[in-house]
Design goal:
heterodimer, A: 245 residues, 4% strand, B: 24 residues, mainly alpha
């Protein structure tokens, strides 16, 4: 069934099924962390998650119908935002902690060992607290994640060729489906019409904070790489270079 | 540099029908 013919319920069901499995860092933690060991753990985990993220994106109804260039651009623009929203979701029931994976959980204070990361940890914890206040639901979370992916590149390019225009139109229709799905998910919560409108506004406004933290995180990772604190390789290197060149 | 060359791994993962979990 094409996504345009799916009910919001079916669409959400498909993106719930696309959710990546829980991922483990599977490293022996030598605490206390050094600046280098913490950065290596964070980047190793990110690299593993990125591979699963590509698989997740391909399972979002309609994503693989976009041009390959659009698929690449969308992923390279939003990958850190997606990782951060996933982190917030895992951490939402653990105030003051960041649950990077079931075997890699950090307190705010543990960020002290990496220069400049406390500021980012605090932003991540603040956004997570906001999701906690809003009692974010799983259905809403999966819609927001798909929205981040599909919205990431919208204001960066303007289509020129017929193929680009076709892909852009498909992308806009796909965003419509995701917005419909989020509206439907909110409508199931037993709120008044006004409360539903406000909730939609509050949830989508949080996306601008996530973009902001992601930009900060990208700058931080680039600095750590430049100073040789951390060795960045494979897919993560490709994504990082894409954002810094 | 073409998009394909600049994003070799990403391009491969997007085009590959093999589960990325296997590649990881």
């Amino acid at each position: 069934v094409h996504h345009s013919a799916m009910s919001p319920e079916e669409f959400i069901s498909r993106i719930m099924e696309a959710e990546p499995p829980e991922i483990y860092l599977m490293e022996d933690m030598n605490k206390p962390f050094t600046e280098s060991s913490m950065m290596m753990s964070l980047t190793n985990l990110a690299d593993k998650e990125l591979v699963l993220m590509i698989s997740w994106a391909k399972k979002i109804p309609g994503f693989v119908e976009l041009s390959l260039a659009d698929q690449i651009h969308l992923l390279k623009c939003c990958w850190l935002e997606i990782l951060m929203l996933g982190l917030m979701w895992r951490s939402v029931d653990h105030p003051g902690k960041l649950i990077f994976s079931p075997d890699f959980k950090l307190n705010r204070e543990e960020g002290q060992c990496v220069e400049g990361i406390m500021e980012i940890f605090d932003m991540l914890l603040a956004a997570t607290s906001r999701f906690r206040e809003l009692k974010l639901q799983r259905e809403e979370y999966v819609c927001l994640k798909a929205m981040i992916l599909l919205n990431s590149y919208l204001c960066t390019n303007s289509p020129e060729t017929a193929e680009e225009l076709e892909s852009r139109n498909k992308l806009l229709r796909l965003l419509d489906s995701v917005i419909d799905a989020l509206v439907w998910a909110i409508s199931k919560l037993g709120l008044t019409t006004q409360q539903q409108t406000l909730r939609l506004g509050h949830l989508t406004m949080l996306l601008s904070h996530i973009r902001h933290v992601s930009n900060k995180g990208m700058d931080h990772l680039s600095t750590m790489k430049r100073k040789n604190v951390v060795l960045v390789y494979d897919l993560l290197l490709e994504m990082l270079d894409a954002n810094t060149t | 540099t073409s998009l394909k060359e600049k994003h070799k791994i990403l391009h491969q993962l997007l085009q590959n029908s093999t589960s990325p979990v296997d590649l990881a």
